[in-house]
Design goal:
Blueprint (H helix, E strand, L loop, with lengths): L3 E6 L5 H9 L5 E5 L6 H13 L5 E4 L4 H7 L6 E5 L1 H10 L4 H17 L3 E7 L10 H20 L2 E6 L2 E6 L7
Parallel strand pairs: 1-5, 1-6, 2-3, 2-4, 4-5
Antiparallel strand pairs: 6-7
Amino acid sequence: MGKITLILGGARSGKSAQALNLAGKAKKVAFIATCQGRDAEMKKRILKHKADRPSHWETFEEPQELAELLIKMDDSFDCVIIDCLTLLVSNLLLAGCKDEIIVDKIKAFLLPLKKKKAKAIIVSNEVGLGIVPDNKLGRRFRDIAGKVNQIVAQGADEVLFIVSGLPLIVKPSFRGNR
C-alpha cells in the first residue's frame, strides 16, 4: 500500500507545484483533475496546469465520482495525484448534493485509494483562514470543505501546509506507515 500525502494551503500558495515535485521521478503517474472549465478564464487555467505537467502522465478528468474512477483504475501507476478536493466539493454542491452525501463520497474514495500500491498525493485548499463568507452558500462551502479536509487528513499518512511555496509539515510521515 502506498503512502497518502495531503497538501493544504491557500489559493496560489504553491500546492499544485508541491504535488508535482512530490511525484518526483515516478515513471507512471495518474493525474486526476476535478476542475471543470465552465468559463474562458477557468479553461485557460486548466490549459496552464496541463502544460506544467509532464506529457507522459495520464490525465483523468473526473469532477464528482472519484471512488468509481479509482476502482476502475489498474494498479500500474507509481503515483496518483488528485487535484483538488475543494473543486470536487464545489462540483458536488453545485450538483445539489447534501452535505452527508459529499462526506460519504469523500470517505468512499479514500477506501480504494488506500488499497492502491501507488503513492497518493491529494491537493486541497484551506478555506477556513479567511473571513466568514457573507452568504449561505459560501458558508456552507467553507464548512463542508473544512470537514472534508479533516476527514482526509485523518486518513493521510502525511499532511503538508504550503505557505508562499514553502511546505510546513503538519502531520509527519513515520517509517513503517503503510
